[in-house]
Amino acid sequence: MSTPALELHDRVPERVLAVVAHPDDLEYGAAALVARWTGAGAEVVYVLATRGEAGIDGMAPAEAARVRTQEQVASANVVGVSTVEFLDHPDGTVELGLPLRRDLAVAIRRHRPDTVLLCNHRETWGRGRLNSPDHRHVGRAALEAIGDAGNRWIFPDAGGGLPPHGGVREALVCGSPLATHVADVTDTVDLAVASLAEHRAYLEGLREHPMADPEVLRDWLELAGRQAQGRGAAVTFELFSFSARPGPTPALPDRARAGPTARRAPRRSRRRSAAPRSVAVAVAVSNPVTSHRPGGVRSR
Ligand SMILES: [Zn+2]
Question: Cα(75) to centroid of ligand 1, in Å?
Answer without folding.
Answer: 15
